[in-house]
Amino acid sequence: MARRGVFVMGVVLCAALCAGALSACDGGPDPLVTETPSISATPSSSSPSPSSTVTAEADLLAQLPAEAKAEDLDGAIATAEFFVELYGTMLQTGDTALWDALSEEGCEFCQDGSDTAASLHKQRTNVAGGDVTVDVRSTRANVAGDGFTYVGVVAQQDAITETAQDASAIETSPQLVSGLILKVRFDGEKWVVSGVDKVEPGEIS
Predict the structure, then answer these.
(1) What is the pTM assigned to this prediction?
(2) Buried b (16+ CB within 10 A) or exposed e, 22-36
(3) E strands within 72-190?
(4) Residue 105: exposed, middle, or buried by beta-carbon count in 10 A (0-12, 13-18, 19+)?
């Protein structure tokens, strides 16, 4: 059973576009109000301040490899490879923060991955294995005329064993090898993943 594998998520972008982009590759209650409210009281807010949000994101992005911070093709490739390999760690820890920071709104594959990891963590399911490794020798990339860069990778995901908190259920998924085409763009600060298409490994060439 391989329902947790990053490579088996049913997400399809425009295959023709992706293939074309790679074809020439080289490489609760209300608060109480008193009759005499204090003039020094300030409203509370459950939302983080803009500065705290910026700091949090900066801390996350500091985890990226140095080469992923470049606004060039090498940066796009490094980000794509890092993003794919991050999936296994995310399943094991349930920490989706960095994955989410690199995912653009509307990326179904990205959201599916985040939801899966969060669900496992919420259910207190222990995940062993599932590490993802990209074969960097097979990575191909191309800057397309649609404003996006397409990065094709061949990745292996190790076998996964999922164990319920009370050990009442154990599920396993086999080792998987797949091709993935990541549609990425630079948002002014970092590369973000706009979509992912699953293909056969041999199509990454």
Answers:
(1) 0.75
(2) beebeeeeeeeeeee
(3) 126-129, 132-134, 140-143, 149-157, 160-163, 170-173, 176-186
(4) exposed
d(CA 57, CA 185): 18
Which residues, including other chains, have CB under 8 Å from residue 72's CB and lie 6 or more apart? Answer: none
Would you state the structure tokens that stand for residue 21, as one six-digit string?
């982009």
CB 156 within 8 A of CB 135: yes
Distance CA 59, CA 40 (A): 33
* Predicted confidence (pLDDT) per residue in 21-72, tens digit: 444 344 433 332 333 333 333 444 455 555 555 567 788 889 999 999 999 9
d(C-alpha 202, C-alpha 205), whole Å: 7
Q: Output the pLDDT for position 129.
A: 95
Q: What is the DSSP letter of 203?
A: G
- Tell me the per-residue pLDDT of 107-157, one tens digit each, with 9 for 90 and over: 999 999 999 999 999 998 999 999 999 999 999 999 999 999 999 999 999
b (16+ CB within 10 A) / e for 79-89 = bbbbbbbbbbe
Structural domain boundaries of the chain?
Answer: 13-20+67-203
CATH code reported for the domain at 13-20+67-203: 3.10.450.50
